[in-house]
Protein 1
Amino acid sequence: MASLLPPTAAELNQRALDLHRRLAGKLAVVAKEPLLGPADLTLLYTPGVAEPCREIAAHPESVYELTGKGNLVAVISDGTAVLGLGDIGPEAGLPVMEGKALLFKEFAGIDAVPLVLSTKDPQEIVAAIRAIAPSFGGINLEDISAPRCFEIERALQEALNIPVFHDDQHGTAIVVLAALTNAAKRVEKEFSKLKVVVNGAGAAGTAITKLLLSAGVADLTVCDRAGILCRDDPGLNPAMTELAQITNPRRLSGDLAAALKGADAFVGVSAPGVLTSDHVRSMAAQAIVFAMANPDPEIRPSDARAAGAAVVATGRSDFPNQINNVLAFPGIFRGALSVKARRITESMKLAAAQAIASLAGSGPEGPESIVPSPFHRELTFQVSLAVASAAQDEGVAGRSFDRATLVQTIQQGLVEAGAHRALRTRHHQISSVTASRRIQERIGEGLVRLGFLTQEHCDKILALQGAGDHRLFGEIALALGFIDFDTLIDYLRRPGAAP
């Protein structure tokens, strides 16, 4: 009999290892157009491919129309700050980069390529990314340690004309801002008057600090291992010195305990167990605690609540109120790519945070949550729309649309994600080729029977599959224009549409 108890950490680790070993990579390259004979080869490769090459050479911006550049993101790391594992090297960081690329595809319909670099030298990293940038519509930096990550991102943003976004910094900061906005409302405190302590002065802590200040927090103190960052401390590195100059308005000094006395909110991006029950009890009434260290938080949520915290969030999926970057980066890049934004600005980040905050409690996460679920139906669309609109308003968009056209453009960009997820969810468990073939036939029969598809079109799709096209029936039907997305999805959701 299967155990009713949740799996242990060791069991989860083994399941993850077994899954990765079975998959041998979480991604695969799939052709959009089937290659069935010489005629297809002539158009998709030589000699036909020469014509789009000539067009791009004459009109460089047409690369966005004639190639996948406009929907392609590079997910790049040097493996120096992977999750909570630290500097484990580029190869060991590759599973995370693959996972990130998978999330881009599943949540936003964006194709992403995981890349790891065998250098820690900032100048070499910048040079490598600049060299490959013509292939991509955006660059997502991942798991690069501070303070090098600041230098690398800044240099790339200055050099490139496409969005460069270090998600560990800004994705985290955006979701924290969204969560803190709602937490302040929950405890009936004015956001701008919160006394906030950020524990951790690395990549995430620095970005959180700057974004919270931009959003209106006036009293913010930053701590690192040595205690409160003070302006007159000669031992700080340049990045920490910059933080010290814009924080700690009350000129506090001492350790974390000193910073937390009377504080309204604790934002931890630091280390397990550094926040104690006594720390929480010393905070102001109705305290807010974001303990986001992974895999083990700064304090257990149950301990924080027992000590008087009114709102608690972590970075873990097995506790309520998970502050997870996946709430932000798919929509941010979808919005930026939709308008060919040249960079991701502060106003675009603030717009993303507001969109995320507005959806909390309206989806599967439940009404008490301060952040929405990653699976909220409106999440990616609303974040995309907010980010794209902000890019247009700020003048960093390469193309601009009226509101209705912008909505349509973003929706079209998300159709692939919706089709991909809905179709795969329906059929991913089918491993038998024979069973899979029969399912495809039954889907076609059902669509024909209901008048959604002609028999001729159904036969053509099945013939393509029989000739080696590995796409699902619905994917081919969509690609060939035989059926519209809403009709297909409505059919697949019907009981008995497929076994």
Protein 2
Amino acid sequence: MDNLIFDFIFNSMILNEMSIRVRMFVRLMHLVIALLPLCVRGQGPRQPENTGSSRQQLVPGAPSARRPNIIFLLTDDQRWDALGAMGNRLIRTPNLDRLAGRGILFRNAYVTTSICCCSRASLLTGQYTSRHTINDFSTNMTPAAVAATYPILLKQQGYTIGFIDKYGVGDKPPASLYDYWTCTDKSQPDYLLPDGKGHTLHNTDSAANSIREFLDRFGSRGPFCLSVSFKAPHEQDAQGATPSQLIVQDQYKDLYRDSTIPEPLTADPKYWNRLPDFMRTDKNIGRVRWKTYFSTPALYQQTVKNYYRLITGVDGVVGQLEEELKKAGLADNTIILFMGDNGMFLGEHGLQGKWFGYEESIRVPLIVYDPRLPAALQGLRSDQVALNIDIAPTILKMAGVTIPAGMQGISLEDLVQHRVPDRPDFYYEHHFLHTPELPQTEGVAGGRFKYLFYPEHDYEELFDIRKDPHETTNLAGDPAYKALLVKMRKRYEALKKQAM
């Protein structure tokens, strides 16, 4: 009826040569009448959907405002140079190398404490060991500390969170707080796991299955954060009469068979003999394990090849993960971070393991791949110092979640875009056990000069990393470096206070 009325008015006005202004008014009235039933029924224009978070902050140049999915991949005992992208021409890591080529490769990445429990607590909390106080394998984080870890902070902002394989902090991990949890109850997972069909499944393959299951269940339900902590390439610790060993997936057992791994410079016995007396003892755990893995040339070849094989196995899972993300339509909005929890001596200085403040022990691989990265950052090779305490704030920043004031790390996104100053060095600390098993270590690392202090013995080491990258010559007793030694002592004291 309303339309008939206005058609009559419109036709009458045409006969009277109506003005352009009147015709525009009539057309507007038609539009009002057309929308009137919708307004009466309460169906006005649709409002934007509330995503649950107003703190979305994406990398400059990001194509969308969707909150990203985040996957953090962590290997156990993988040193910085056990990666093709870091210049190793023997190891085969094509998937990780490709990821580095499309993301950011941090060539000077370190851990602030080189042992699983402490480093993993630092990864979760963004704090130095001095602050989070996890110094052994049985101490648990307080409920307040757990609530301030990156996965739980993301869950509070609507993320689905999962953790696979090895949590590695305390003996009562917060499994109930996660939407998906397949971590072992042991402090160190086993390599060979029952598959429920009377056979065994390698730990790396089990992790791959868990990743696939998580993506199938939660990949389409909104933003998620999945933390995957591989056992590889950590050794299988001795169990009863079974000695410590590296257990490789069947499909990689012949890989590197025809290769010869060059022995490192400091594998020469004279460098073991240069260590201070309190370290040069058969009670030193690093020396005990050296005898098992590196005491003969044949053992050296076998150990390093198996170490590389385990890492190549992880690389295979990374390739599978990328394919799963593509199939699920998640690849364009999923960030992948990859890191080692600490380094590893492969016979250098007559040692096996980590713990001490030398480069082989504290330096690790680190890749940050974000499909939203601006072109200028894709394939970047950064020489800036990055730390394990930077992982939590980086993840939070990329998700658009406020970084708690208690975190001591920085966003790596901010670091590479020069929003924060480069760090010239950092405080290193290791207090698990003591002499003679593991002499406690503190110091300053990451810059040209490294200062190490052994508080149980009031002993100092000073190395020029630029001229002496293998740390063969202790300059602490050289009169020519007296002024520098004094300067490094002061820097050590300052950094130690800041780490608290």
